[in-house]
Amino acid sequence: MEDTDYALGRNEDEYARLIEQAELLRPLTERMLRAAGLSSGMRVLDIGCGAGDVSFLVSEMVGPEGSVVGVDLDAEALSLAERRRASLRISNVAFHQGDARTVESHQLFDGAVGRFVLMYLRDATSALRLIAERVRPGGVLAFCEWCARPTTTASGSDQPALAWLQHALAETFRRSGANLEIGTELFVRMRDAGLEPDPSPLAEIAVRMDDPETAYRRWKSFARSMLPKMIEYGVTTEQHALHLIEFQLRDELTRPGAFVPLSWLTIGQTARKPAA
216 near 254, Cβ under 8 Å? Predict the structure, then answer.
C-alpha cells in the first residue's frame, strides 16, 4: 500500500531492521491500540503489515476469540511474516497480498490499524475514507506516523553526524514523495475523512542511554537501507555517506553518556467511525 517511490529496501537486512524497530516502538504502539479500545474478540485489519509485528501485537490484544488480517503489497515481507507466524504458533492471524484500500472481506472489521504506512500515500485522507469503509459503524482506526520537523531531530552542534544523517534521510523520503510530517496531520485528516478523532494523541521519541552499540546499529542500518535512494536522488555520495556512517557516526553515538534519539517523533492517533 504505497503511492511513492518506496525509499527503503526490500531485502533481508531491511526486514531485520524493521523487526528491531518494531521492538523499539512496541510500547507506544501498544498504548495507542489500548487507547483506541482494541480488546478481546475484535476482528482487526492491519494496513501495510510488512513483516507482521503490529499484527502479532494486535493478535495478543484480541485473543483467540478475535482475529487479525494483515495486508501488504510486498510478497517477500508477507512470506517472512507467515514464517514468523508459524514459528510463533499464532493461529488468529492471516496475511494477504494486496492494497488495503480495496481489500475484500465477507464482513466489516471492528478496527483498522497501521504504523508508518499513511506517509507513503499520495492522498492519506482519501485512503482513510476508503479504509473506514471496511470498518463497522462505531469501529476504531489507529495509526502511528512520524513527525520529522527540525525541533524533533538531533542537535547539529551536539550530534552533527546524526543531525546530518537525519536530514539526509528526511530529504530522501521527501524526494521519494513520502510525507514525514504526516503524524501532525493525522487529526485533521481523520476528521476530514468523516471520522471522530481523539483530541489527545500519544507522542514520544524513543531514546537509548545505556546501550550505545544498539543506538549506532539502529541508525547505521537505517542509513544503509536508504543509501541507494540517497545516492539516486543526489542527496549524498556513497563515499561521503559511508565515511560518516562507519566513523563519525560511531564515534558520536558511542561516546559515554550520549543521549541518542532512536527515531523521529512518533505520533499515535486514534479515531472512531461514526455510529450508523
Answer: yes
Per-residue pLDDT tens over the stretch 242-259: 989 888 998 888 887 777
| β pairing state of 265-272 and 196-197 | antiparallel
Indicate whether 171 pLDDT > 70: yes
Q: What type of residue is 189?
A: R
- Specify the DSSP class assigned to residue 133: T
Taking domain 12-272, whether its CATH number is 3.40.50.150 is answered by: yes
In tens, the pLDDT along 186-234 reads 999 999 999 999 999 999 888 877 777 888 888 999 999 999 999 999 9
DSSP H/E element including 54: helix 53-62
Using alpha carbons only, give the angle 193, 196, 201 rounded to the nearest 5 degrees.
105
Closest among 66, 76, 124 to 100, alpha carbons compared? 124
How many residues belong to the chain? 276
C-alpha distances (whole Å) from 68 to each of 39, 139, 140, 232 are: 12, 14, 14, 37
What is the per-residue pLDDT for 1?
58
Rounded Cα–Cα distance for residues 208 and 258 (Å): 8
Which one-letter amino acid corresponds to residue 77?
A: A
Q: What is the pLDDT of residues 16-68, one digit of tens each?
A: 999 999 998 999 999 999 999 999 999 999 999 999 999 999 999 999 999 99
Domain boundaries, the chain: 12-272
Is the Cα torsion angle 144, 40, 51, 215 positive or negative in sign? positive
Widest pairwise Cα distance in the chain:
58
b/e map of 147-166 (b: 16 or more CB within 10 Å)?
A: bbeeebbbeeeebebbbbbb
How far apart are alpha carbons 68 and 59 in whole angstroms? 6
